[in-house]
């Protein structure tokens, strides 16, 4: 599954504001978007990633993405962050 990368990543950002910041700062190597997240939230991140040339990977659900990030709640977006 694609979210295995999230589990293995040393640094992860979750949440739209944090992920957008990481993408803008060229620190995100890949962004994961939950398919069941509100498109009004995720479209901005997806467009930003396209503009900045960051790979976007879709995962099945917010629940799975949140779990992969090690948080108890669902996550709409998450980014693998390069230091």
Automatic annotation (TrEMBL):
It holds the Pfam family Ribosomal_L7Ae. One of its GO terms (cellular component) is ribosome. Residues 4-82 form the Ribosomal protein eL8/eL30/eS12/Gadd45 domain. It comes from the Bacteria. InterPro entries: Ribosomal_eL30-like_sf, Ribosomal_eL8/eL30/eS12/Gad45. Keywords: Ribonucleoprotein, Ribosomal protein. This is 50S ribosomal protein L7ae-like protein.
């Amino acid at each position: 599954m694609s979210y295995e990368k999230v589990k293995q990543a040393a640094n992860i950002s979750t949440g739209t504001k944090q992920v957008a910041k990481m993408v803008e700062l060229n620190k995100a190597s890949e962004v994961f978007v939950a398919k069941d997240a509100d498109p009004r939230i995720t479209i901005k991140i997806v467009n930003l990633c396209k503009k900045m040339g960051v790979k976007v990977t879709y995962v099945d659900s917010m629940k799975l993405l949140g779990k992969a990030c090690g948080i108890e709640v669902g996550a709409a977006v998450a980014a693998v962050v390069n230091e």
